[in-house]
Design brief:
Keywords: Membrane, Signal, Transmembrane, Transmembrane helix
GO molecular function: oxidoreductase activity
Protein name: Tetrathionate reductase family octaheme c-type cytochrome
Strand content: 5-15%
Number of helices: 14
Number of strands: 15
Order of helices and strands: HHHHEEHHHHHEEHHHEEEEEEEEEEHEH
Pfam family, one: Cytochrome_cB
Helix content: 10-25%
Amino acid sequence: MTVAQRCSVGLLLWIWLSNALAATADHTQFDALQGSFTSAQEVTQACLSCHTEAAQQVMATRHWTWEYENPHDGEQLGKKTMLNTFCIADRSNEGFCQSCHVGYGWEDQQFDFTNEANVDCLACHNSGDYVKGWAGYPVEGTNLTTVAQAVGETTRASCGSCHFYGGGGDGVKHGDLDSSLVDPHRGLDVHMASDGLNFKCSTCHQSDDHNIAGSRIQGTAVDNQEAMLRGHHDENRNAATCQSCHGQSPHETGADAQRLNDHTRTLACQTCHIPAFARGGVPTKMEWDWSTAGQLDENGEPFEITDDNGHIIYMSKKGDFVLEENVVPEYVWWNGDTSFVTADDTINPNERVMVNTYHGEPGADDARIWPVKRSLGRQPYDTVHNTLLQPQIAIPGNDTSFWYNFDWDKALQAGTEYAEQPFSGEYDFVDTAMLWPITHMVAPSEDALDCASCHRDQGRLESIEGVWMPGRDRHVLLDRFGFGVAGLMLVGVFGHGAMRFFNRNRQKGH
């Protein structure tokens, strides 16, 4: 049995044992959770009466700070400084964006990151009927006692309540994460299939002191280590990689096993095993044009336009969208290093601005060919300073859907003042793009890409440099030489055959 096979058996045993032990204490019987809570912070304080270190652990993670250090160049980045092609900027819109924050009360720059009571334990450990609203507080009408007494381990639904809906709606941002993964079939995701392995998010994204492995911001593009036994802690290993379970030689049977294993030195596993994303019936947003926001109908009222399937493709408060399903990824070389454009960076408005850039030298040992979603945008920029702007597009209030988009002057003035960003008052809109790695919705092996998907003219990797691909690449002189040699061989074969034929007839004549 190979290392990968032993680790696979160990993984299945670990999943079985984890499920067997998953039943936690009956929280309905805990004295601290009896009675009614008057605030969400009271629930956290009750949790901390037993889980004494949990809040401090959470507060040391990116889920709390929304900041991190780029391990490749040491640059400090975070949601407060980064921009995107979706909701443009977190800065000045904290109250709306933080409906997915694992805390309570972050709606402006006065948020107290040191207050343990602001940590939201229910955000991840709820039973599925917990919804967060403005500034991360539970929506009005939430029975905090009922939710607190029903806490348990994380699930696909609890993780997905934020990660499936990033960017403003179901499936909007990532393309390979949407509500179809709450109860997926095997054809959608071979790992998370409810009637199959039934992986939770935490099966791959394991945590240590609430610090969860895996990142879409700075990913592990190459994992050269062997498979590891699940449940064993390794502080030097990001467990959320294919290799952490399947090792470096994942193909073990079939005549082409070794040839396919050789491909892992060039391709990410996801490149072949995720043939398309947004495959679960939920479309993903491929384009978002903010420049058209603010249009009103003949009565001077905001309006929406839907497509034939009932999906919104225009909103007065957001602009135009292009939605797609079953999307074929684009492919890029990536070594895990990603750089981002911030509000301080100067852009060239005469070309499409890459809000983030994936780095990786074609053919390098530390890079692999990865599938990505390329999200296109059109967003405001300062025509004098040539910087992307941070509009305020959400304001506090009972109606958290009220946006400033109907008046771009007002939105940009308010946002840049809040963010303390220089603003000339002159603006226009510029085309942008952003990449997201595709790593979920892993198809069954029988649905993986075949050789002809890439090894042909106009195949999937047509534009990828750094590799010589039979079927795609050719050299004219070499082709001529090869065909010439083949032609001479054919002439020789036919000539030899003809000589034998005539010699045989001559022998018969004698």
